[in-house]
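Q: Structure tokens for this one, please.
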Amino acid sequence: MVREDSDLLKHIKVGDIFDLKYCEIASSQYAELKTEIRHIDKDGTGRFQGLYKVGLSILEDQDSEQQNPAR
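A: Here is the predicted structure, written as tokens:
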């Protein structure tokens, strides 16, 4: 969820790919994974009114990266 007045919305668009860090809460470890912006939709109703939903898709998982470190 992103506020409609956030500068982030000026810097992202559908199809962009970023290396984002994801943290596992239980172990405090993190992984950096290629992630694609899949959709950016404004929520017009409910408790999230005025916010944008940013859909993300992880393009690679940690297991495949460990199995193929040369990629």
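A few notes: The longest strand covers residues 29-43. The first helix runs from residue 8 to 11.
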